[in-house]
Predict the 3D structure of the following.
Amino acid sequence: MFELPYACGTPPLTACLRVSPEDFQVEEILGYDADGAGEHLLLWVEKRGANTDWVARELAKFAGVPQVAVGYAGMKDRHAVTRQTFSVQLAGRPDPDWSTFPHPEVKVLAAIRHSRKLKRGALRGNRFVLVLRDVQGDRANAEEVLQQIARRGVPNYFGEQRFGRQGGNVAQARAMFGGRRVDRSQRSMLLSAARSQIFNEVLAARVERGQWDMAMEGEVWSLAGSRSWFGPEPFDAALAERLARGDIHPSGPLWGQGEPPTQAEAGALERGIGTLNEDLVAGLTAARMDHERRPLRLMPEHMRWRWLDDAALEMSFELPAGAYATVIVRELALPPPLSQEPAGGRCSCSSSRDSRFPAKKHRAPTGSCESGSR
């Protein structure tokens, strides 16, 4: 199996994540406040072991409105304790008594009126508190890796959730591009999986070269905290300073119509990966997807960690919208051998057991683990 390469080599620990939902806590950061008036009600909801879409359906049912009247900014992990905002359109209706909501795994913590429905992607990011259990390995080396992650960041891979059960969404996307009919909601999911596959392969190639967080000739840059990008343009001292402080990041393709905007060395790499995925590129082009960019580097904010005991490590950090907490964990810890996983609990540390890529021998990245932001 092909493993997405690591920025700092083989992780120093083995550990289990999500032994219980409380070990994976997520809090959504919208980045703005409710208006206090309007026909929509913003609900601050805590859910445990529940699917976001299911919660939206149940909120609609309880409020007596169609499901289309309920909005949310992003999907949250099911096997977790998560807090996020939902909007419910209640034009001309009184506020329901949310204290009588009939599902004990879902709590409505607060409700306030707002003028607009929440749209997908309309959030600043997410705050995570994770606990790794049954930790084994080199703690001194783990401390060095944690410091590197806090200072340097990690490769901004799409996480395994993007690709469905056993990575099957990419194969389904290929079948769709070959003529298999799918419904509209599944089509959107499969298009995303196809773009994510190409992006991850480009990023993996740059990690192997040790160039995922530094400029390549012909680079296109992503602006931190936005979907905007610019370039290519000559790499100079001003760009180097912005790269070093995290204001900009090297970017990779979310493939769509036309050629990637990168040129020279960066462009050749991306076009080469595109050629290896010719069917995905053709399908995305036929679907008239716009070409977009995604940062290759993920910089966690406010990262902290502490040992709860000799075998339990707690980590907390904030990530921008669209980033995956599991790509932080994967640089630090591998799952234990199957024979050592805890009975009755989940053990899902990272995407190390990865079946989304063809068989390929893994190579360690070129260079050291020191920051390449130069």
Remarks:
- Confidence is low (pLDDT under 50) at residues 350-368, 370-374.
- DSSP finds eight helices and 16 strands in the chain.
- Residues 159-298 form a domain with the Pseudouridine synthase fold (CATH 3.30.2340.10).
- The helical segments are 52-63, 139-152, 168-177, 184-209, 237-244, 264-276, 278-286, 326-329.
